[in-house]
Amino acid sequence: xxxxxxKVIATNKKARxxxxxxxxxxxxxxxxxxxxxxxxxxxASLVDAFATVDDGEVWLRGLHIPEYNRGTWTNxxxxxxxxxxxxxxEIEHLVGKTREGNxxxxxxxxxxxxxxxKVELALARGKQLHDKRQDMARxxxxxxxxxxxxRRIKGMRG
Length: 158
What we know:
By secondary structure, the protein is α+β, with helices and mostly antiparallel strands. It is 34% helix and 33% strand. It folds into 2 domains: 6-126, Small protein B (Small Protein B, Chain: A); 128-158. The protein has helices at 15-18, 33-40, 88-100, 129-157, and strands at residues 6-11, 19-29, 50-54, 57-61, 82-85, 104-113, 116-126. Its main location: cytoplasm.
């Protein structure tokens, strides 16, 4: 019996901080058996991962899936390059976008959907330091506004 729904394996928390996300794609990943078993144990790291488009194929580089602890000589290499599975028109769109602009492909999260491993891939532009500061200031202002609104509501009741 297959499991239903979406089970998150790993997320790249720094991606939304370091990059401005323009577009998001869902891609399948070509994996070996021991890699899937290690992922089922919830072991993966997207920290240094990025994707490249080479000869009409999309490759995920820098993804760390540790060796399966009950694996034998057939175990996988932890940081090997893995192929991403996308439709041809999506790949052509990504090729055009990455060549024309200063854009990169960053994985946001990795998860199981109905027993298959998927990667949420973002077409993103790197943020400058002042952009990051503006985002932090905006979030702080929003947090203060909601906090003050909550205080006023509580003050009116009590």
